Amino acid sequence: xxxxxxxxxESSSQIDPQPQRMADEVVADLGPVWAAVGRVQLRxxxxxxxxxxxxxxxxxxxxxxxxxxxxxxxxxxxxAARWACFGGLGLGLLAALAWALRPISALxxxxxxxxxxxxxxxxxxxxxFARRSPEExxxxxxxxxxxxxxxxxxxAQGISPSVAAPWQRPLHLPLLLGLL
Length: 180
Known about the structure:
Elements lengths: L18 H10 L2 H42 L6 H22 L5 H11 L5 H10 L7 H17 L5 H4 L8 H7 L1
Helix pairs in contact: 2-3, 2-4, 2-8, 4-5, 5-6
């Protein structure tokens, strides 16, 4: 009687008797995916911080101009202009810091990379598979998930953060420069 080949996870003299070790290696193989997601996250974080800095400085500049007007009308002491200047600068820096520290979902970044690089949801699916609970999937499902994660790790090697998150000039930057 001919014996059919065993699926991953089955004990056989031909198959690795430790399927858990193979699953751990696959999760470790997602390093290129996590690295690509991290590079794009950093780029998105810097862009968000720059936008927030522009908006904060715009608001701070408006506050300063209003304070200068009130100082010229002798409704506020001249010391108020100095405090408004520091307050406006602090507001811009605080806004930039708040937006830079804001969490960005790795799954959303992976979906953005998938879309920009036409990867057909490879990275997002691999991250979802990696985050699933360690419940016992069927052998076929586990094999498909493993293959999807290996494919995503291969695809992640050609990711360019500049394609996934191109730099964009903040919308109100010319207005800020005009006020300064």
